Amino acid sequence: MKQRFKLGVVFLCLLGCTGDELASSIEVDLQLPEHFPVPWVPSENHLTAQSVELGRYLFYDTRLSGNGTVSCSSCHKQEFAFADDRPRSLGATEESGTLNAPALTNVIYLRPLTWAHDTITSIEDQLLGPMFGESPVEMGMTGATQRILDRLTSDTLYQQLFEEAFPAAPIRLKLVRYSLASFVRSLVSYRAPFDAFIAGDRDAISIQARRGSELFYSSKLGCGGCHAGFAFTTAAVSAATGDNQSSPFHNIGLYNIDGAGSYPDTARGLIEESGVARDMGRFRVPSLRNVALTAPYGHDGSVPTLEDFIAIYEAGGRHIESGPFAGDGRESRWRSTDLKDFSLADDERIDLIAFLESLSDVAITTDQNHSNPWRF
Ligand code: HEC
Ligand code: HEC
Is there a domain that residue 112 lies in? Predict the structure, then answer.
């Protein structure tokens, strides 16, 4: 499969496009395989090769943080499919966050964005979080915007990159956000062995992984109900489907601190935004593409391995015996009723993990199109 972006001009407005919301403008050939739908891209921020390239320089540039210590890539590391291997990332002030930095592959398809906000629907808006967020501080840009823009404006390389991406427009924060969003959109991941299997190469994955995929989609385990479709999450949309119809937020019983279903105050899920009791502990279903590359797991990175995660599903929730978060998640009143009760034989567990491993697109972890341009 070709790995380079090809510059071409493709304007797409599929059936049902009405107004800005559903219009889609993609000016790079994303080389999508047949089982990937055409993604939705906001009409005000065309996906161009030049904006992706500018975004790549910015993504890896620590000058983008207030104190010059952190870049997007500090938490989203290419070697881990743009996730973080720390349970919770450190921001510009060395303050630890409360959530695990997710992989950034196939974010072009995700809506809503982040672990537990159902109102953040564009990457452009989501980026205000890491740039300006104060609890926790990530990039620490609050109060430093002009200083950061001055840094970029005085660099002749950026003058050129901005001019190519946004001709005759002054360098401003909106364009920084737009090009970063475009770079993130370009991180489409479709080169896993399982993709080759779907495309017809039966030997692309092992016999264990094939048995594991049958388990995954079986009614006994029901994993495919939430980790659905080509992106392995119900939080994926495309240009054709538009907005999500069903809620992609679920509580899987990781905590039950007070016996009433509570999660730690630092990360309580959708309830923080909605204020509705039943949203306690509900987090967005993560994509399982590249999951074997993105340990540790769960919204707060509190589950070290895939084996541990599957054991939690098998037990019907996580039982924490001691410490401040002690409680039996198996008894949680908020645990999703869409989760099945099941147990696995040892070889079935191995099969299921082999399947999850077959979702790893190792090529993306070294793809030069996405890597740090400042190294060369
Ligand atoms: C200090 C670590 C840190 C830095 C720096 C950081 N992020 Fe993140 N990122 C996170 C965490 C943690 C989340 C999950 C936030 C949440 O769910 O509320 C996240 C979420 C995201 C998401 C949403 C992904 C999804 O699946 O919904 C995108 C997109 C993203 N970051 C892009 C960026 C970009 C671009 C930058 C640079 C401007 C950046 N991040 C800087 C830690 C970081
Ligand atoms: C009811 C919906 C639902 C079903 C069914 C479901 N999951 Fe999940 N899964 C989720 C949600 C939500 C999360 C994130 C929960 C959190 O972090 O609090 C998750 C997280 C995961 C993770 C961790 C991913 C990461 O990046 O942190 C793995 C692995 C996983 N699920 C595998 C499975 C497997 C295997 C099955 C079938 C046995 C399954 N899931 C069934 C909703 C579901």
Answer: yes
Structure tokens belonging to residue 213: 């995929």
**Atom 13 of ligand 1: nearest residue by CA position:** 101
Q: Which residues line ligand 2 (CB under 6 A)?
A: 221-223, 225-227, 250, 252, 254, 283, 285-286, 288, 291, 294, 297-299, 306, 309-310, 313, 336, 338-339, 352
Query: pLDDT, tens digit, for every residue of 243-285?
Result: 766 789 999 999 999 999 999 999 999 999 999 999 999 999 9
Tell me, in angstroms, the distance from the centre of ligand 2 to residue 136's CA: 25
Please give the tally of structural domains in the chain. 2
Supply the CATH number for residue 134's domain: 1.10.760.10
Nearest CA to ligand 2 atom 3: 226
Whether 131 maps to a domain, the answer reads yes
Q: Which ligand 1 atom is at minimum distance from the Cα of 115?
A: 17
pLDDT digits (tens, 9 = 90+) for 123-149: 999 999 889 988 888 899 889 999 999
Give the residue, by CA position, lying nearest to ligand 2 atom 33. 223
1 found inside a domain: no
User: What percent of the chain stands above pLDDT 70?
Assistant: 93
122, 208: one domain: no
Following DSSP, what letter does each residue of 232-289 receive, concatenated? TSTTB--TTT-S-SS--EE---S--TTSS-PPPTT--TTHHHH--GGGTT-EEPPP-T
